[in-house]
Amino acid sequence: MGAGRRRVASPDQRIIGLLDTSPFRIAIVYSLVFACGAAALLGVIDFAVSRVVDRSTDNLIEAEVQGLREEVLVLSRSEFIELIEQRSQDQDVRGAVYLMVDPQLRPVAGNVPAWPSIDRDEGKWIQFKVSVPFGDETRVHEMRARRFPLPDGYRMLVGHDIQERQDVKHLMMRVLIAAVVSTLLLGLGGGIWMGRRILAQAGAISAVATQIMRGDLSQRLPVRNADDEINTLAREINGMLDKIEQLTLGMRTVLDSAAHDLRTPLNRLQSAAEGAMSQLAPASAERRVLERVSTEVDHMRGTLDALLRIALAETGTVARESVDLSELVASMVELYAPVSEERGIKLESTVAPGAQVQGSRQLLAQALANLLDNAIKFTPDGGHIRVQLKAGGGGPEVVVEDDGPGIPADKREIVLGRRVRLDEARKFPGSGLGLSLVAAVTKLHGARLVLDDAGPGLRVSLRF
Amino acid sequence: MHILIVEDDEVGRDYLANALREVGHTVDVAGDGLAGLHMASSIAVDLAIVDRMLPKLDGLALVQSLRATGRKFPVLILSALGDVDDRITGLRAGGDDYLTKPYHMSELLARVDALARRGESGNAETTTKLKLADLELDRMTRRVTRNGKKIELTAREFQLLEFMMRHSGQVVTRTMLLEGVWDYHFDPQTNVIDVHISRLRQAIDKDFDKPLLHTVRGAGYSLREDE
Predict the structure, then answer these.
(1) Beta strands of chain B (E only): which ranges?
(2) Which one of B51, B187, B189, B201 makes the best mutation probe of the A interface by having the most chain A beta carbons within 10 Å?
(3) Which whole-number Å values give the CA distances from B3 to A134, B6, B73, B94, B225, in the listed order?
(4) CATH number of the B2-120 domain
(5) Inter-chain touch A260–B187, beta carbons under 8 Å
(6) For chain B, how are helix, strand and coil distributed in percent, rounded to 5?
(7) Are the beta carbons of A344 and A381 closer than 8 angstroms?
């Protein structure tokens, strides 16, 4: 648990984390929709505008062709040529182009230098490019025109400069693309910004949650001065934490008062018994009674200590530190080795180095001591006890196995509850709280306690 | 030695005062935190025993004020609270030792004794060579000899002996050993400490006429030269 399990985000993971945030996804979807919308809108405008403009240009040319067709019937050739020349130079009809050619396609009149090579031939309509003077330089302009035959093999071309229209179209196309691209970029940027905000908020929340899980109930989620969903949620969670802290502190106060109200009279009793004992002859009957009293006080203290520690562990408010589990297990084994040797019990241990957990060293030591006490108590003389600390990938695991009578499968759940002593165990000393305390300490450390059959004997596993 | 007891439980306080007087200490008592602070500032106190929960001024606040005003005499904190974290808070507030009720008088006397001697020989922690009769321990070379003869000890036995030698002549209880040598604060159900001591005894006393490591009935152990 603790530091070991916390994911440390590499840059890659951070980006993937960002892509996973809902604001980023929403932003991407929105910007795609907006981009499509913008594209469609501009497409429609472009289509509509070009239709109107094309139509009006075409109508203009159409009308001019119609007019000239009528003129050619009534005018002589020279008059017609003059008319063409006149129209070609007419400044009022900007962009209009005329060309009259003889049967050999040589220009006769008009403002187009030569019969053009045709880019696009739509049958009736043709499009071609012509260099036109533009101030000091010349530019190539696109023209749209119609051709029609004149008498005697002469041919006529009437058209209009559509370069400006094409320019507008190209500009619109560029604006369209720019709009789509910038919508996408803005959406992406906004998504990243929002995603980072959410990630930062979520990160702050999860950091606080980790501290709270470690027992620091005074921590609160960061709240910004805004009424968005996350802040509202954070405020509500903080309210809940206030309540939990209040309850836990209340529980601790109750525990402390209970401890005080029980320990004080016990202390008087102990002091009174010991004080009286010192006045009595060593083997007197009265002294023996007082010794009994003193021993009972010791038992009561033992039970009280265990109950208080269980309750304390269950409130989850025990201060935590980084505990070197390897050192702890090794030193507990070392502490219990001589006493088991006295009983002819072989206490073997394999301890993986470097296992760390976040928690209470004293409570962990107490839990291990209870397990070893139990193991030694129930293992017959000459038996075996095996203690292992495995440093697996998921977290360290402590296993204590003995070859004592074990605990029947149907009773393994029950013994972890408070004050359960199996009938078979009554002949052994103890408060019956040993395994309950182990269970409470295990839970406090977010570990899993499993009782199993060691075949024969009991196998207790604490997986952190 | 002049001992100040600040404790609001009268019955417990009287027993404690009597027990301390019986072993030859001068005892003053105060029933609340403010009276305790007042007395600690006005009379020459060698050691104070302070209950953690006191009326008027909390025990921890009392110790903190004493430390803040430069009073350096050792303080033993008595507590009737839960435990685990309370001990650390008590020591952090400026207490030198911490004992949870109910306690055995022998345990309390042993701790008072240890605190008092610690005050006397303040530099005992830094001495590299410890010596008792013909038993010598060198903390630098980690060598133990008795009557010039080298004694082989495990690392833990060495620590245990070092602790006993630093408290030579005093009674050292099992809990003091578990705290001082192993840094554990609980009562094991089995007699783990006794077996460690008997191994140490095997090592240092077995081949010699005069035993140095003695069992003090009902209290603990003592490393001393018997008269």
Answers:
(1) 2-6, 26-30, 47-51, 75-79, 97-100, 129-132, 135-138, 143-146, 149-151, 171-173, 213-216, 220-223
(2) B189
(3) 114, 10, 10, 17, 28
(4) 3.40.50.2300
(5) no
(6) 40, 20, 35
(7) yes
Burial of A77 (0-12, 13-18, 19+ CB in 10 A): middle
Helix (H, G, I), strand (E, B), or coil: what is residue A352?
coil
Question: In chain B, which residues fall in CATH 1.10.10.10?
Answer: 129-223
Question: What does the alpha-carbon distance between residue A87 and residue A112 come to, in Å, rounded to a whole number?
Answer: 12
Using a 10 angstrom Cβ sphere, with 0-12 exposed, 13-18 middle and 19 or more buried, the burial of residue B134 is middle
Question: What is the average pLDDT score of chain A?
Answer: 82
Residue from A172, A230, A174, A152 nearest A47 by CA: A172
Per-residue pLDDT tens digits for A306-316: 888 888 888 77
pLDDT in tens, A406-440: 887 777 777 776 555 555 555 555 556 788 889 88
B61 has a chain A CB within 8 A of its CB: no
Stretch (H or E) spanning A173: helix A163-213
The SS3 of residue B139 is coil
For the record, the structure tokens of A252 come out as 């601790």
Nearest to A264 by CA among B34, B59, B97, B100: B100
Tell me where in chain B the CATH 3.40.50.2300 domain(s) lie: 2-120
* Cα end-to-end span (Å), chain B: 24
Given a cut of 90, whether residue A387 has pLDDT beyond it is yes
- pLDDT band at B124; cut points 50, 70, 90: low
The encoded tokens of residue A453 equal: 């059959």
Whole-number Å distance between alpha carbons of A384 and A340: 9
Q: What span, in angstroms and rounded, lies between the C-alpha atoms of B40 and B47?
A: 9
Per-residue pLDDT at B123 = 52
What are the structural domains of chain A?
Answer: 229-313 (1.10.287), 318-463 (3.30.565.10)
If residue A373 lies in a helix (H) or strand (E), which one and from where to where?
helix A361-378
Mean pLDDT, residues B170-197 = 88
Summarize the confidence of residues A75-81 as an average pLDDT.
86
Which of B190, B193, B198, B201 best probes binding to A when mutated, by most A CB atoms within 10 angstroms? B190
**Which H/E stretch holds residue A259?**
helix A229-277
Whether the complex's predicted ipTM is more than 0.90 is answered with no
CA distance A86 to B65: 115
Over residues B43-60, the mean pLDDT reads: 90
Find the angle CA(A58)-CA(A59)-CA(A64) to the nearest 5 degrees: 100
Two tokens, residue B113: 């004794």
Average pLDDT of span A315-336: 88
Overall average pLDDT of the B14-27 stretch: 91
**What architecture is domain B129-223?**
Orthogonal Bundle (1.10)
Q: Looking at the complex, does the CB of residue B88 fall below 8 Å from at least one CB of chain A?
A: yes
How confident is residue B49, by pLDDT bands cut at 50, 70 and 90? very high
Handedness of CA A447, A451, A453, A457 (dihedral sign): positive
Closest approach of B190 to chain A, Cα-based (Å): 6
